Amino acid sequence: MSGLPSTPQLSHITLSLVGLILLWAVAARVGADPTVLPSPGAVWQLIVSETKSGELPQHMWATFRRVLFAFSLAMFFGLCIGLALGLSPRLNQWFGTWLVVLLNIPALVVIVLCYLWIGLNEVAAVTAVALNKTAMVAVSIREGVHALDPKLTEMARAFRMSRLAELRHVILPQLWPFVASSMRNGLAIIWKIVLVVEFLGRSDGVGFQIHLYFQLFETGYVLAYALSFVVVMLIIEYGVIGALELRAVRWRATT
Fold this sequence. Notes:
By secondary structure, this protein is mainly alpha-helical. The chain has a single domain, classed as MetI-like fold (Orthogonal Bundle). Helix content is 85%, strand content 0%. The chain has eleven helices and no strands. The chain has helices at residues 7-31, 40-53, 55-87, 89-104, 107-118, 122-146, 150-158, 163-201, 206-215, 219-248, 250-253. The two termini are 17 Å apart.
């Protein structure tokens, strides 16, 4: 079973994107000012040029690497914390407020503090991004645990399943919609925060390039780098997360 969208879905996605590009082209033509809004063709030429020079792949990889590390850390610790708080009312009573505090600290504050405490390096950059997302994942997973079907839990105990087996075969399959939602929201939020991290204190990456061309008032280059990474995120969304989701919920088709 493939994780890619079906043919009808692909056609709808393609038509939607084509419509967006046409709207962009019309807006650029009406505005008639390429310094404010360049046409799709002009931005495409910049993407090709930056790719041939090696600049775009280099900075894209730097950003993707940070997104991957921060995303993995945030999902791992968020899943562990969410499960712990969801399964233990006592832990949730004591530490649930901590999540609320973390959720309400602005991302910019976390980024600046990490740079001040750790330094202007990769560890600080990845840590800042992961901290911003971990609380969001933990809250989503905790609410997912609270929404578990108690009958399935009772069944697992009646069959004397071990805690590990119950977690693997009963809890995690039910939690997948919450995990998938956290993954999708995580990718959308994390790569934006990574750009801010690069904007403020890194010497490479898409955010760094956007900062550079912002100072030069080069709207076309800003769009070229931003949209290139959006394409990467779309591929991950439909090609990777979609495949994981289909595999995780396959059991429902047999019940």
